[in-house]
Task: structure prediction
Amino acid sequence: MSIRETQAWQALEQQLEGGMRDVHLKTLFQQPSRFETFALEAAGIHLDLSKQRWTPEVRDQLIALAEEARVPEAIQRLLRGERVNQTEDRPALHSALRLPREAKLEVEGVDVVGEVHATLDKMETLVGKLLQGQWRGATGKPITDVVNLGVGGSDLGPLMVTSALADFEPDHAHEVATHFASTMDGSQLADFLGWLNPETTLFILSSKSFGTIDTLSNASTALDWIASRLGGDEKLIKRFHFVGVSTKPDKMSEWGIDPANQLLFWDWVGGRYSLWSAIGLPIAIRVGMDNFRRLLAGAHAMDEHFRTAPLAENLPVQLALIGIWNVNFLDIRSHAVLPYDGRLKHLPGYFQQLEMESNGKSVTNDDAVVDYSTCPVIWGEIGPNGQHAFYQLLHQGTQPVACDFLAPINRYNDVEDVRFRDDLMAQHRLALANCFAQSRVLMLGDDAIKSESTPPSYKRYRGNQPSTTMLFDSLNPATLGALIALYEHKVFVQGVIWNIDSFDQWGVELGKKIATETEEIIATHSGLETLDDSSRGLIEAIWRGQQQA
Result:
């Protein structure tokens, strides 16, 4: 049975046709205590859902929909390690990666917590050697730069967190810079290799399958770069200049990664959920292992809230439900993530993968084609940049867009120089003022400012664009961990309601297969006749252009 046939879904459609389709937010804000009604808080995250186009009655029906979809039972199945990834027949246990050492979780006869902390301990040893200046390259010089070679979840998560937590580099540590190369065209790596020192550079090969062509091609180039400059035995170079992070120890060993330099994670960790595992090694190098553990602890605090809070008070559930309302009832298919903190510049891209790879599905768990919308298009930018780029469309365009505004409450409090601190705190106030002002204008339109006269049409703002505002006490490892876990669990809840598998990504696989076949045709000049007319024409243009170069 489609979810559209459930009693709760049909009740929501009645709410929609009974006036909610066209009701304006300025009308909804005539209700008393609206902020108090729709504000929630947990794990250092303050969530304001009052600027969404819903009422307490709509919320109640959405909770009923979640109950009909058996969301409470699904939450427990996820956290217990049951096989919620149906097409791959395995758990999705990223929450186990942040369980404290004293926790107990046995999954299918395996002590998961023990395995996780064994890897964390090995990771701590490697990080300690680097930050104490004890990891030396093949010529005996201490490592000064680490380049993470990964793509997708092996790149986006570590890149986002190291950028967000740059203020938390450990004091008095040997300085080790972190860099990221993900593009298969070699452009990022070529830039780094133009100025890095091969004697003091360490590469991390991060790949769940250890078969990702993007990562292995970058690794091959990096190996040739060091070998051509240092000479010597490639086996020795791999021992001193390469670390592997994967679920496949045999493949890492086959490539030449020393077992002492191998960090493992597990098939039950999805790539886009893997920054909490050894994939987070660049994070730990950047901020130190203590802060990495604080990141895990913040996520675990949100896990516990998710596990124990009633649906009406549960931040991930409520965030998921308003998304269901926007996508499936208000027909809002575009969702912008707008952080008002420059340190979160990579957050929209990270959430883009998290949501669109997880819930960009059109077939249910019952193998039926969905007859409703699933994941919206996720996009975004740092808020102040967006104001000068695409907010024009948000305010006066024809597209309905739901927005998430994110900002820290406190910043720069620890700056010692009083005058400098006052200047920076004034800038932070300016950012907060813009964040709140933009969401207010999106909500109220022209009514945000009272005027004696009616402005011309080109100066009118219709308002009624829904938004959520998330504040966190400050941007630190714990609150960032909680924020990421909040979105992870939101995605899961929506997947449960839509009856889709949020943990597979089969849509990615065919493109990889065809790309491998196409690369062989380009390289060998054989098999062109098997392709379509457009592909043949494009490849012939490449051949002609490369012959003339």
Q: What stands out?
A: The chain is about 50% helix and 10% strand. The radius of gyration is 25 Å.
